[in-house]
Amino acid sequence: MPIGFLYRDMRVHLSQKPAGYAGSILVGAAFAAGWTPCVGPVLGSILLLASKSSSIGYGVLLLSFYSLGLAVPLLLCCLALEQSLKLIKRMGPILPIIEKAPGSAYWRWVCFC
pTM for this structure? Predict the structure, then answer.
């Protein structure tokens, strides 16, 4: 059974896409605001570790790996978008099962422990 508030989504549908640099900045700011809860704690931790380290190189290394870890999966998704959409469309009928399977497996494990 789905938990309602976890499925809540908020979107803004515009009749026209924002044009020019100002529109790009607005869309980027909205995207960043949506991702802040996801990336903020990890980025904050890395920045704290980098600030407490004795060398700048260690901070640069940490932030480089963080950036790669964030960018590479997104770039791969962009490159494989067409194939991914075809696969998701084919898997449509079984997506509810895939969505529920990890949760049910977790609860089976909890009950047996």
Answer: 0.50
